[in-house]
Structure formats: structure tokens, C-alpha cells
Amino acid sequence: MAGSGQGDRKGFPDLHLGGLLVKVMSDLRASYWFIPGALTLGAVLLGALAVWIDTALTVDGTPPDLPGSAMQPEGARALLSVLAQSIFGVTGVMYSMTLVAVSFASGKFGPRLIGNFMRDRVNQWSLGILIATFVYNVVILRAIHDGEDAPQQVFVPHLSIMLALALTLICIGVVIYFVHHIPEMIDISKITAGLGRRLIEEVTRLAEAQSDIGDDGFRPPPTPPDATLVAGRAGYLQAIDLDQLRSAAEEGGYGIDVPHPVGTFLSQETVMLRIWGGLVSDEVERDMRGSMAMGEGPTETQNVLFLMDQLVEIAARALSPGVNDPFTAIACVNWMRAGIVAGGATGDGLAGRQEGPVHLPQPTFRGLLDRSFENARPYTSSDPLCDRHVGWTLDRIEAELPPGPHLETFRTFRDGLRDGKGQDAVRGI
Question: What pTM did the predictor assign?
Fold first, then answer.
């Protein structure tokens, strides 16, 4: 049903494909089950294919002339059993090492960094390869026949066993690399560098995208909206399928305002969408609802400022009295600088320009400054070494930004920061 005025507040009891798909894809990237599960399924199919090839190459009970083709069923079973048991045991140790490393890093550097470790592709592929090799050995093991009832039915899949040995050698290399990777994964320099590089990449992408658009998008009028949609449940706004939302607005001739950016915590009564343009049909309402996805916490998906928040969090923990590690905070400040320079040096983007019938909060250059040096100021100003480095960093940013509105915005921000008149409130958290 459509509504008129602000009194018609529709909830979000369910999610549909658009926003949910964006959220699911993000969750899959940060899961320890998707890649191992896919590789396990592939191992089952590979085992079945290898046994089929062995069967096709066996003529009148005579196996193909391959190295180890004289192996008997008892020896083949013993070999595959040892390989499977060893690999399964090593996999358990690798899982334990991963969990210990993740627990240590999240406790020392911040619990919101867990997603960075969960997205680590080395961990996902390492665990997946070992589990898949174990499953492959089990599949081949059950294909062996010793011919107790019918000697002519003795079957040893020699080609499959050779492939099992090759996969085991690969697993040995994977284990060696994994053991090397674990200390790197919890190295604070690599953690901050990973966050900083993703920050630069996302800021650059956003700035370039905004540089290519005009500023003729929908602006919320001063009149009350014809309908509003509320969250219906408490949580963080994690993703918006903007294409689906724009399509729904264009088809119905609506103007839509999204009051809160991705990453904002919403209560069940928080307005998620404000709609102008008349009545909203149930079908269009479902499309609008389906474009929004909520979850238990903020993520990096469509939320570049969350990357900056994580750098600030690491710096704050490093400068706490119990840790007192100014050099880690300095590293975070350096990557903040790199992200801000990337945003200010890429055309005239990050100016909040809009196009199309949907208006939503856009990351701006001033927003990057507020979420970085402004939010970190209470911590960096308390440490003389870090405070001096922040001052030097601000001078370097001014020297590295090209002339233009972003440079003027930065100078205004820097002067306010040094005078102690910066914005004290943290927006959107």
C-alpha cells in the first residue's frame, strides 16, 4: 500500500534479492567455508573422474603400465590411509593456528579487524586444499577392490593413486607456505598496509566515479515525503543495491532520499527511505525493500570510511596506556595521509555530486578528513612523538595536494585542527 505524509511508515520485515545478494557476496568473501567447500566438492568430482579413467584404462584386469602399477590392494589401502590420516591431522593443526592468530590479532589490534583475517585468501585456500586432498583420498580408497570373492575383480586405481601422491606433495608446499604466512598475517605493519592500500584503491575509485558524473540528481524538497520506509529491525545498514533502487524510482517516477549512509546503525524505527512522487505499489515497495540489506556490524562493502575507522582504531589502541606504541600509530597516520592524498589528487571527485532519481549520502573529501585526523586527534595529541608526526604529515599533505577546492578544504580543516576547533562529533557511527 502507498501512503501519504510522514505518518505512513513502512517496515522492512524481509530482504529480497538485490541488497541481500550484495551482502551475501561480501559474506562469502569473509567466510572460511565457501572456498574449502567448493574445493571439497571438486575433490569428489575429481576422484570419480580419476577412478573412471582408471577403469577405462584397465583391460581384462590388467592395469596400465604406470610407475607403481605392481601395487597390490593391501598396499594401496595402507598408502591412502596414511595419506588421509596425516593430511587430516595437519588440517586440524592449521585450523588451530588460524584461530589462535585471529584471536591474538583481534584482541591486540581491535575486534573489528576480524573481517580482514577472515578475508585472507591464503588461509581459505590452504585449508581448502588440505581438506579437498583428504576427501579425494577417501574417494579413491573406497574404489579399491581386493577380489576376495572374485579374484578377477581385483582393482587398484593406479593413476588415481599417483594423483593422490601429487596432491600430497602440493599439500606439503601449502603447509610450508601457510606456516610462513601466519606470522605475516599478524604483523601490524602488514595489517596497516593492507588497510591503507584498500583505502587508497576505494578512495581513488570513488573519486574517479564522481568525477565522471554531473550534479543534476534528485534533491529532497522541503515538503514532507509522500511515504517513508523504516528499518523494522535494529542493525547496521550493510549494503544498498543502487541499480535496483534507481530502477524502482525511474519506473514509478519517484524521487528517493536515503538519509543514512552505508555503515550507519539503525533502530527499528529509523527511516531508511523517504519517497516523493505519489503512491507506492506493493510490488515497487518490495523492490525498494530488496535493495537494502542490514546486518550485525559495519563492513567494508560500499563503506570506504570504515577502512579509515579501522586505521583510527589501531592507532587508538596503540596509544593506550597499556600498550604505548607510538610507532604503530605513526604507521596508521602515514596510511591515512596516503588515502587523503589519493582522494584529493584524483580530479574533482569526492565533492558529493549526485545524479539520477536517488539521493544518498556520498563520501566527501571533508568527510575523509573528519574520520581520520579529527577522530584520531584525542589519541595522537596525547603522545608527543605522534603529535609531532601528525603536524609534519599535515604539512606534507598540503604540499602534495594539487591546487583546487580540495586543497582549500584541507587548509581550513588543518587550521581548525591546530586551533582545537575541529568537529568533535563522529558522524555516521
Answer: 0.79
